[in-house]
């Protein structure tokens, strides 16, 4: 006989069901029902709401763990368990622009052991770089930036046991269209960011198969009335998805609202871009090779004061969108 969860409300993709029960069948969620069989076991969450687990598709670290440190035990346990405690049930460990050798080592460890994650499950690896350009480098190291190479990608993918399923690059790099066409044909999602690309350059990458915009507005050429740039392409090109950090620091709430209205909720992916200090106190930390100061709700490069990822919890980003009256539960 199934068990049943009792709660005040249950969130579904297109509505909220008040009261009632949610079936648990063989450890999996079943139907929402109003009545349950006599004698059925009830897990009572009266006073609470039940929602699907969150998925963070862009996250560099949490709880003192940085994916680029290649501390695989930390990623599999400290990070994944910490994320689960915050409502995240799946995530993509995200790298930074680094050396070929360091990226190879990180992917090899995750690819070999990702199924051992004891909390939130690892659903792939996201390469944020190294095929970027310097003008909008953000907290990425320009020393390692270069044009895309299929031989490198194939070596990383082999090391990852095929787990590398998302990669970000700048559209203006040499050879991007052929690279995008090839890797998307193999099932890899290509994102565009850390880029000074024109609208036309971005469109060519999208036409080749790119479909995601990296942390919208941040690390990309802005929109003017004479050159639409990356932001204009993000607004204008259909069938693409924008990553959005809703911490109130990376993007003004009104700019979040404009983007969500322009693209529609189905084409927005709330992310954190969280770094190692997520879930910890203010202080001095590292993001990859760069010293970072965490204070007043932000993580900033010690050298320049530029934002360096976030310390956002995804559940708080979701709450902000509701509190800002951009979306309703």
TrEMBL record:
<comment type="pathway">
    <text>Amino-sugar metabolism; N-acetylneuraminate degradation; D-fructose 6-phosphate from N-acetylneuraminate: step 4/5.</text>
</comment>
<feature type="active site" description="Proton donor/acceptor">
    <location>
        <position position="273"/>
    </location>
</feature>
<dbReference type="GO" id="GO:0006046">
    <property type="term" value="P:N-acetylglucosamine catabolic process"/>
</dbReference>
<dbReference type="InterPro" id="IPR003764">
    <property type="entry name" value="GlcNAc_6-P_deAcase"/>
</dbReference>
<protein>
    <recommendedName>
        <fullName>N-acetylglucosamine-6-phosphate deacetylase</fullName>
        <ecNumber>3.5.1.25</ecNumber>
    </recommendedName>
</protein>
<dbReference type="GO" id="GO:0046872">
    <property type="term" value="F:metal ion binding"/>
</dbReference>
<feature type="binding site">
    <location>
        <position position="226"/>
    </location>
    <ligand>
        <name>substrate</name>
    </ligand>
</feature>
<dbReference type="InterPro" id="IPR011059">
    <property type="entry name" value="Metal-dep_hydrolase_composite"/>
</dbReference>
<comment type="similarity">
    <text>Belongs to the metallo-dependent hydrolases superfamily. NagA family.</text>
</comment>
<feature type="binding site">
    <location>
        <begin position="307"/>
        <end position="309"/>
    </location>
    <ligand>
        <name>substrate</name>
    </ligand>
</feature>
<feature type="domain" description="Amidohydrolase-related">
    <location>
        <begin position="50"/>
        <end position="274"/>
    </location>
</feature>
<feature type="binding site">
    <location>
        <begin position="218"/>
        <end position="219"/>
    </location>
    <ligand>
        <name>substrate</name>
    </ligand>
</feature>
<dbReference type="Pfam" id="PF01979">
    <property type="entry name" value="Amidohydro_1"/>
</dbReference>
<feature type="binding site">
    <location>
        <position position="215"/>
    </location>
    <ligand>
        <name>Zn(2+)</name>
    </ligand>
</feature>
<keyword id="KW-0479">Metal-binding</keyword>
<dbReference type="InterPro" id="IPR032466">
    <property type="entry name" value="Metal_Hydrolase"/>
</dbReference>
<feature type="binding site">
    <location>
        <position position="139"/>
    </location>
    <ligand>
        <name>substrate</name>
    </ligand>
</feature>
<feature type="binding site">
    <location>
        <position position="128"/>
    </location>
    <ligand>
        <name>Zn(2+)</name>
    </ligand>
</feature>
<feature type="binding site">
    <location>
        <position position="194"/>
    </location>
    <ligand>
        <name>Zn(2+)</name>
    </ligand>
</feature>
<keyword id="KW-0119">Carbohydrate metabolism</keyword>
<keyword id="KW-0378">Hydrolase</keyword>
<dbReference type="InterPro" id="IPR006680">
    <property type="entry name" value="Amidohydro-rel"/>
</dbReference>
<feature type="binding site">
    <location>
        <position position="250"/>
    </location>
    <ligand>
        <name>substrate</name>
    </ligand>
</feature>
<dbReference type="GO" id="GO:0008448">
    <property type="term" value="F:N-acetylglucosamine-6-phosphate deacetylase activity"/>
</dbReference>
């Amino acid at each position: 006989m199934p068990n049943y969860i009792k709660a005040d409300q249950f969130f579904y993709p297109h509505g909220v069901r008040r009261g009632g029960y949610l079936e648990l069948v063989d450890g999996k969620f079943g139907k929402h029902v109003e009545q349950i069989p006599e004698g059925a076991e009830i897990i009572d969450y009266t006073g609470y709401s039940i929602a699907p687990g969150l998925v963070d598709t862009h996250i560099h670290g949490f709880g003192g763990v940085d994916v680029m440190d290649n501390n695989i035990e930390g990623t599999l346990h400290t990070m994944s368990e910490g994320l689960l405690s915050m409502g995240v049930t799946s995530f993509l460990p995200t790298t930074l622009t680094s050396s070929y050798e360091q990226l190879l080592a990180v992917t090899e460890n995750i690819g070999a052991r990702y199924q051992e994650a004891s909390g939130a499950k690892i659903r792939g690896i996201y390469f944020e770089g190294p095929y970027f350009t310097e003008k909008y480098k953000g907290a990425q190291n320009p020393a390692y930036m270069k044009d895309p190479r299929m031989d490198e990608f194939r070596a990383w993918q082999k090391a990852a046991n095929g787990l590398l399923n998302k990669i970000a690059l700048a559209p203006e790099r040499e050879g991007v269209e052929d690279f995008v066409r090839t890797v998307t044909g193999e099932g890899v999602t290509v994102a565009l960011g850390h880029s000074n690309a024109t609208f036309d350059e971005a469109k060519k990458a999208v036409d080749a198969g790119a479909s995601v915009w990296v942390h919208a507005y941040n690390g990309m050429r802005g929109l003017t009335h004479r050159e639409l740039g990356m932001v204009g392409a993000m607004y204008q090109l259909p069938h693409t998805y924008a990553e959005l950090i809703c911490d109130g620091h990376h993007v003004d709430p009104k700019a979040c609202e404009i983007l969500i209205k322009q693209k529609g909720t189905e084409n927005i992916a709330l992310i954190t871009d969280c770094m190692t200090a997520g879930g910890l106190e203010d202080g001095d930390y590292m993001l990859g090779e760069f010293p970072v100061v965490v204070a007043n709700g932000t993580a900033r490069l010690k050298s320049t004061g530029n934002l360096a990822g976030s310390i956002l919890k995804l559940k708080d980003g979701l709450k902000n969108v509701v509190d800002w009256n951009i979306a309703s539960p």
